[in-house]
Each structure stands twice: as C-alpha cells, then as structure tokens.
Amino acid sequence: MKLDNNVSAVITGGASGLGAATARMLAAKGVKVAIFDLQEEKGEALAQELGGVFCKVNVTDEASVDAGFAKAREAIGQERILVNCAGTGNAIKTASRSKEDGSIKHFPLDAFNWIIQINLVGTFRCIAKSAAGMMTLDPLPDGDRGAIVNTASVAAEDGQIGQAAYSASKGGVVGMTLPIARDLMSEGIRVNTILPGIFNTPLLQGAPQNVKDALSASVPFPKRLGNPEEYAALATLMIENGYFNGEDVRLDGAIRMAPR
Q1: Which of 134, 206, 235, 259 has its CA at a distance of 20 to 30 angstroms from the CA of residue 102?
Q2: Which distant-in-sequence residues (6+ apart) come within 8 Å of 96 by Cβ?
Q3: pTM of the prediction?
Q4: Contacts of 241 by beta carbon, 8 Å cutoff, 6+ apart
C-alpha cells in the first residue's frame, strides 16, 4: 500500500506509547490519522500536532467504538488502515497463599474478564467494524482495500507468573490473526500482528533506573528497551508491503521471558 494523503488511518491507544509513535510515522508519510483513546488531553494535543482528529473511545463499549468510527470517517474519510494498540495488563496469580496467615485466594474472575474485554474483545470489535468499512472502498492499484495491524505481546508465548489473563488475551490476538486474514482475503484486506517485548513506553518511563537497567540487561541483543519508533517502523512495513499477511511477528531483541 502506498502511503500518502489519499490514505486514512485509525490508531487505537494512539495518544501515547506505541500508538503515538505509529501515528507520527504514518502522518509523516502524509496519512490522515484518527486517534482513538481515553486520554483526552494527550490525544487532542497529538491530533492537533499531526493535523488529525481525536476520538474519545472505550474499546470495551460498542456505542463508543461506533461513535469513534463515525467521527473519524466524517473528519478524514473511510480508513484503509487500522492499528490496534489499545490494551492493558495486570499481575495476579491463578491461586495464591498468603505469607501472613496462610489463607488461600484465587484470581477474581471479574479482573480476568476485564483484561480479556480490553485486549482481546476490544481488538476484535475494532477489527470487525473497521473491516466492514474498508469493504466499501475500491481497491488500490496493488489490490489492497485495507491493512490491519494488531498488538499482542511476547507474553502470548512465554507469559510470566501472574500473567494468566494478560497472556490469554494476547494469545487470543495471535490466534485470531490468521483466521481473520483468511476471512478478509477475498476483500483485499490484510491482517498482521506484532508481539512486542519490553518497550520504553509510559508504563516503564516512570520506573526507577535500576529496574530499567535490569530489564535492559535481560534482552540478549541489543541490551536495551525497545523504542516505540521501532514498533512503528514494523507496523508501517506491514502496511506498505503487500505480501505481508496473516503473520505474527515478535519484536523483542530475542528475549524469552523468564517465569518471573
């Protein structure tokens, strides 16, 4: 897909971190961007910087997602690109014993479901609605009607202690990539997923330096945290390269996560 000002993109979780870096990289190529996020101040500022539009969207709420797509399409046209970066995590053991009194508790199911709803169901909701919109477009000269990039995590393959919900949600994103690509193949819509390792996103930027140093040292090479721009570069490649379809790609410096 040729990226220029004839192409529009929606980036969920686009106000910061991986999503913001992707929005900037696409905008630098002329793409018109819509940022879906709950962070109004950051989202509005970035949209203004890029000449795009901000839509306050909660990916777990269907009406909110519908309103976001309607606003984005009115402002910048039907998107040909969707990049799903909205997501969150928690760390709770499946069952655990208190060190203080020996009492036993299990993972609260509402907390498990919350992660699934955001990371997995929210991603699929945006894919389905965006793909339906892309199907209304004429194909480009290369045959593309659209390109979708999802964000999973290396935790989909080697989740750590306490990551049962997070790993399940991200494993679900990996697992649905190929069947969705197959669902949409006759419409010229490609679907790929990135599995990031440890990236220097806002979640880690506030961590103590010794914590960041330890995380960096755990990466085989290069021994540092990933830069959001590196994620954005891979997402952009997946969009531009018309033969990139149905793939799940780790971007992690060859790290394989230890149990803890």
Answers
A1: 259
A2: 104, 105, 106
A3: 0.95
A4: none
